[in-house]
Amino acid sequence: MSAALALDAAPTLDPSPPPPCVVYDRSGGYRATVTRHAVRRFAERVLHLDELLEGLTDREALDAMRGLKVDVEGVRRWLAFYGYPGPRWGAKGVVVGRVGLVLQGHRVVTVVTRD
Questions:
Q1: Which of 10, 34, 96, 115 lies 20 to 30 A from 106 at CA?
Q2: In the 8-state DSSP scheme, what is residue 69?
C-alpha cells in the first residue's frame, strides 16, 4: 500500500462521536467528508426547509440554518458517520431508512429521499 493510500485510510485522530441513535459503533473512528451541498440537501429534503433556502448559495444556506437553530454540525456528523461504510465497500451510495446518501469516493456529495 502506498503512503498516500495509508494516510487516506487512517482514521482521524479525534473522530466525532457516533450519532445518539447508534447502538453499536463498528466504524473504528472512520468518517466520510461531508460537503456543504449535502448538508443543505439534507435540510431541504429531510427537514423540509426547501422554501426557506431557495435562492441561497450552499454557504448562505448553512448560515441561514444556523440562524434557524438547526444543529448543522449534528447533521454533518450524522452524514459523516453513515456515509463512510459505502466507499469502504465500493458503493456509490448508502441508504439509511428513507434517506439516501450519494457518494463520490470518501465524500457525501448530496442527499436524496424516497417518497
A1: 115
A2: T
